[in-house]
Amino acid sequence: MTPAQRRWVFGLAVAGLAAFYLWGLSGLPGFGDYPGPYGFAVLHLAVQQTNATGIVSAINFEYRGFDTVGEEFILFAAAAGTAVVLRRLRGERERSPVDQAADREGPPTSGAVRMLALLFTGPVIVMGWWLATHAQTNPSGGFQGGVILATAFVLVYLAGEFLVFKRFSPVALTEAVEAAGAGGFAAVGVAAVPMGVAFLTNYLPLGQTPGAVSSSGTIALISFFVGLEVGAAFILIIGELLEQTLLIRQGGR
Amino acid sequence: MTVAAHTPYTVPIGFMDALQVTLLVLVAAGATAVVLIRRHVQQVLVLSIYGVLLAVLFFAFQAPDVTLSELAVGAVALPVILLLTLAKIRKREE
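YS: structure for the whole thing
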């Protein structure tokens, strides 16, 4: 095929795609036009049914809680997969984490980076926990809180070094926390079944005041477990990647 | 009678529209920049900035939950993972 022919084929394909795309766009509902009844129904019912004022969390952890269990285990499987793929392979050796070139100085971490990282670690942990435990009252939730908690450990790595990061997050403990988070979510859901109600039914007392931290029954509990799971999963993935980058080398010795 | 007239957080008419359009244009420009930049480390840094832009966009469209997720994942976690992977690949090439 000559370049000219190829251009023709490309041009035809692009024209066809553009035509279909524009046709599809012309059939879309107008900007901000929401035709479905589901959203309005949830907005009207969520607060009185669950006592949670964070309605997005009420949907994630209660109305569509079953979907969230699935998403939870996607992340769980992803972290496990990362750990399996990034393990030390045959033909690779793990370099012991000692100074290989004691005569040469590595580039020192700048004082500004160290200072900022140390300064932010505490507030970031508080913020992560706050988000993970306030899903029922605010726009927040276990997922966001968990990821932010994990970044606190990245700050520890930035401020100190890899060994400090490892001491703060030993793999066995991180894995246990991750499993406890995922298992806790599933257990909260399964516990409803012996009570004679459906999986993930909100069986805990909902509290008196909508928007109180202690309100909303299982929503707050599930968000807490999701926070554990997500935080540990991200720490695990980042730890595995750091280990790959810093310790494992090609070629056995 | 509009509800907005009674809250202290009134914004001028048309302000939100202008903000949303501006942010949509910025996000489109950011996405194009991420695709066009070929040097990987710079690309990851621009991707992180693009994540922040996208988070602000979600916020302007009244989706604070998604904003938080996008800030944590798109602007921080994903770039960190990509930078670590780049570091690993570069070490192997030496």
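YS: worth flagging: Chain A touches chain B through 21 residues (CB under 8 Å).
IM: good catch. Also The two ends of chain A are 51 Å apart (CA to CA).
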